[in-house]
Amino acid sequence: MLRDVKLRLWHGALAAAMMTAASAYAETPPAPAAAPSDAAAGAADLDALEPIIVTAEKRQVDLQKAALSVTAVSADTLEKGNVTGPLGLNGYVPGLQITPSGGSEVMVSIRGVGSQTPENFYTQPGVSFHIDNVYIPNNIALNLGFLDVDHVEVLRGPQGTVFGQSSTGGAINVIAKQPELGKLGGDVTATFGNYSYAMGKAALNVPVGDTAAIRAVVQKTSHDGYSTATGVAGGYGLDDANNVNYKLSGLWQPTDNLTVTLTGQHFEDDHHGSALKSVDDPNPDPRQVTQDFPAKFKLGMDVDTLTLNYSLPFANLKSISSYQYMDAKQSFDSDRSTYANFGGYDTVAAWNTKSRAIMEEMTLSSNPGTDLDWIAGVFYMHSHSSQYVVEYKGTGANDPTPVLSTSTSPSALPSNLSYENLSEVDRDSVAPFLQGTYHLTDRWRLTGGIRYNVDQYSGWGSNYYAAPVKLSKEVYALTGKAESDFDLTDDNMVYASWSRGYKPGGVNTGTSTAAVVSGTYNKETVDSFEVGSKNRFLGNHLNVNISAFYSKYSNMQYIEEDPVPYSGGIGNIPKVNMWGAEVEAKYRLLDNRLELGGNLTLMDGEIPDTYLALDRRLADAAAAKAVAAGVTYPWSAQWFAIRAAQSINVKGNTPPDMPGAAGGVNASWQQTLGSYGTLVSRAELLFRSDYQARVFNEAGVDHVPSYSQVNLFFEYTPQSGPWRATFTVTNLLDRAGVAGRYTDPYGSGVVSNQYIPPRQMLVSVNYSF
């Protein structure tokens, strides 16, 4: 019944798109207006929406003219919603869902396509994340947060041609503010709030002669934990913050044809870790977790980038070179409980990951104004990653749980060591690409693109300090897009497209003892078909964008459980189908005093074919029951067979991370206070319906409930003076919405929730000079 309702809604959305476009095309063009008088020319249309320029597909273009689904979230919107990192973008972008996973990773999906491989450091995200067009190649790095952001661009659907690393779900590109020539200035911001929230930020732009400038930014953020671990003596705060983020950028423009930008960013984070509350926690308070092993999370990261732009007579040459380093260390209570409640302990004493990466992207793009717009280039990346995991499990209250040396002898292992993995993987990726847009007429354009992806993996993995097992894999894939768009009027356009994205296969480093899971896994691809319409109405006072999509997932990567415990890895589900519709709108009226906005996404999907997958929770339960009944004993052949027999057919199941409905609505009011200045008030409602957390759709485990969140924002700006003050309230009703659900695939198997932050009240003062 619900699916039928959704289908009718999608059909209605498509019909509305077609009717909107048709009616716009059917309108009789107005007669040329007479030349305005001087008085009329001086009267600006205060309600007209300003054009938003995005760099989608490596070209600067008006968002309303871009023939693809892209959303730009401005720095002003980020501030009003207290969005300090990727996790805060939920509700602002159609089809986007970002959830915490396992405490340290940030999992991103767009239109249900993302990553189903938590706690696997060597897989690539389905949604690629970039900072100033530099690809960030792992999910842990998304803890970096936002710093000195101009706007955030989110491209929806596969990006398999020109956008950095090919991706199956889409791309997020954080565009930072850049140094400015000839300008001396900056700003200072101080923010305070409940939970001892304190944030200080300072930015300074300094010109160096006529051809150079430097921009420096530093930001320090801290607050107490939003949750408390009650099983630790004296209580232990979780979901706290303690980080510093700073960036130094230099711009050199010796001629009009050459621009050189060098940027270095450093981030440090050291806090108690995230609160993952077991669904079996005896304490009903969502902000209190009954756990007794203190969690720790520490992250250090550097991103250094050199960008060169050189204008040739016939084209523009651009080079982006980057070096990245990441060092993450964490420990946590894997059983999400206390010794007394769990009947023992399951503790991850160390989950340490390191990564170094160098990247180069070179592009040559045509100058505007010709019948054929084209861009050609090549992307290269080399990365070296390592991982060290130590986990203990037992029933002795005083058992030691040390972080052992990586050179520990297999003959000297503690009896309570349940899992250890040491691994290293090198990846080399090369991808040449070409895309062109041909203007058939002034209104009709055709676009085609192609990309050849080559990924090579080599490395080794070792479990329980045994001799390392060498692993390698080579992956090749052809991706691209085809698209046609047509301007019905100067303000209304329609488009239709096909695009293919790709996520490389790779190696499983912990499967040396596995019975079923392979040492390598296959690439995944997504073919997406989309139709859409972008429209300006009422003299550009109202913008409405509508799109619908159908995506075919091939070889979706997911966590595959093995009958042998701790030997799981990444597997592939052959086929997954997804479909949906999206709408975005913004309306400005009453001389720019009132602005209304909103977005809505409707989605659904299914796994169409028979596929047997092993849910480790069912396998654990069946094996434990057989042991208790005296049928078998642990680690016997019969015990393994009992576990393997718990595989279930996931045909017809709903894919993970696909809420049936999600979006947000907002309203802003600008009030002039006479000679005292201006007050801006904004209210917004963000919402997300329920969804399935895993492919198993297991009742009571995978069904994640819906939630909504109300935010308020007020900004006072005096009529004169270089300062302003804001008051922000997020999660006004103090709802404990479930931001994400995590089922531990390797350790305890415990199901836990991570909640959105509680009500936050923040006062901020900004001084510009």
Chain-wise SSE layout:
Elements: H1 2-26, H2 38-42, E1 53-54, E2 61-62, E3 70-74, H3 75-80, E4 96-101, E5 105-110, E6 127-131, E7 134-136, E8 149-156, E9 170-176, E10 185-193, E11 197-208, E12 212-223, E13 227-229, E14 236-238, E15 241-255, E16 258-271, E17 277-278, E18 288-289, E19 296-311, E20 315-333, H4 339-342, E21 345-366, E22 372-394, E23 417-439, E24 444-463, E25 469-489, E26 492-503, E27 506-507, E28 520-521, E29 524-537, E30 542-560, E31 569-589, E32 594-606, E33 612-613, H5 616-628, H6 637-644, E34 648-649, E35 661-672, E36 678-688, E37 691-692, E38 703-704, E39 707-717, E40 723-730, E41 738-743, E42 751-755, E43 760-768
Parallel strand pairs: 6-9, 13-18
Antiparallel strand pairs: 1-2, 3-8, 4-5, 6-7, 8-9, 10-11, 10-43, 11-12, 12-15, 13-14, 15-16, 16-19, 17-42, 19-20, 20-21, 21-22, 22-23, 23-24, 24-25, 25-26, 26-29, 27-28, 29-30, 30-31, 31-32, 32-35, 33-34, 35-36, 36-39, 37-38, 39-40, 40-43, 41-42
Helix pairs in contact: 5-6
Describe this structure in words.
This protein has 769 residues and is mainly beta. The protein has one domain: Maltoporin, Chain A, CATH 2.40.170. It contains 6 helices and 43 strands. The protein has a 22-stranded antiparallel beta barrel. A 5-stranded mixed beta sheet has the order 3-8-9-6-7. Strands 14-13-18 form a 3-stranded mixed beta sheet, with no helix packed on it. A hairpin with a 3-residue loop joins strand 4 and strand 5. Helix 5 packs across helix 6.
